[in-house]
Amino acid sequence: MLLKAFENGADGVMVIGCLEGDCHYVNGNIRARARVERVYNILGQINIGPDRVRMYNLSAGEGAKFAAFANEFVEKIEELGPSPINVSRKAEHQTSLQEVER
Amino acid sequence: MITGTPKPIDEILEMVEPYDNIIVAGCFGCVTVCRVGGDKEVQVLSSTLRLAREARGKKLEIKEVCLERQCDPEYLELMRPYVEDHQAVLSIACGAGIQFLAEKFTITPVLPGINTGFLGVTERQGEWAERCQGCGDCVLHLTGGICPVTRCAKSIFHGPCGGSVSGKCEVSKDVACGWQLILDRLKALDQMENYGKIKPYKGWDSSRDGGPRRIIREDMI
Is this model's pTM higher than 0.95 or not? Predict the structure, then answer.
C-alpha cells in the first residue's frame, strides 16, 4: 500500500501508529514499524529516497502533536522536492505536449 | 517447506532491463508461507520495479499473477493464454517452480526473482531454519528425530567430531552441534541403545550423488 502511494504520485507518506506498548493489536504498531523500515530500505535502493516515508507514534488524543508532526514532515518533503517519479512524469508530459504542438 | 530469500533488487533490475512488458509470477505454496514469493510479495516487487524503472524514465508494464503452485502443470497451464503476450516471466517461486515454468513456456524467457534456500521450518515469525536435505534414506527413528545429515555440518554418522565444543559446532558458535543434540535427545528418551545401531556407513546413492532423482508411483499413474 505504501509503495502504491508512491506509484500514484505521492511525494511522501506518513504512517501513524499508536504509542508503543499501547496498541489495541498488542504488537501491531511494532510490526508496522518493521514494514515501514522495509519500504524505507526499498525506496533507498531504487533511488526514490528513503526519507520520503516516515512513521510516527501518536495516541488518538494528541491532535496538536499530530499537526506538528504533519508540518514537520511536509517541510521535509518540500526540502526534498518532488519524487523522481513525478519528475519523470512531468518530463514525459512536456515531451508529449511538445509533440502535439509540432 | 522450501524456503528462499529475495534476490537483491539491483540484480533483478539488471535481469529485466531489456524488457518493457513482463509477468511477475508468485506461488501460493511454500514461498507464500516463508514470505518470499506469495501474492503480497508479487505486489511489493512489482511496485518496486515499476517505481525504479519509471524514476529512470523507462516504464515497465507488469502483469501480476500468483498461481496455486508453480510445481504442478495444471496451474501453470492457466498462464498459457497470456504468457506469449509478454516479453519475459519473473518468477518468485522456488527453483523447482521456476524451472517447470521455463519447461512449459519454451519461447518466453523465465527469470528467477528469489534465491531458493533449503527444506526448513518456521522457528518463529520471520526466522526459518534448515531441517532436511532430502537424502532419501531417513534415520530419524534412530537419532531421536534429529537429522545428522542436516544438523551436523559434516553430515557424519558417528557422534560429535573434535570440533564440537560445549554443544556448539566449530563452524560457528551460533550453530548447535547436531550430534550433541542427538545424544542429549537420546538420553532424554532413554534410547541410548540406538546410538550403537547407527549404520557404519551411509550410502549416498539415494541422495544427490545419483544425479537428478525421480519418484514413480505406479499406483497413482
Answer: no
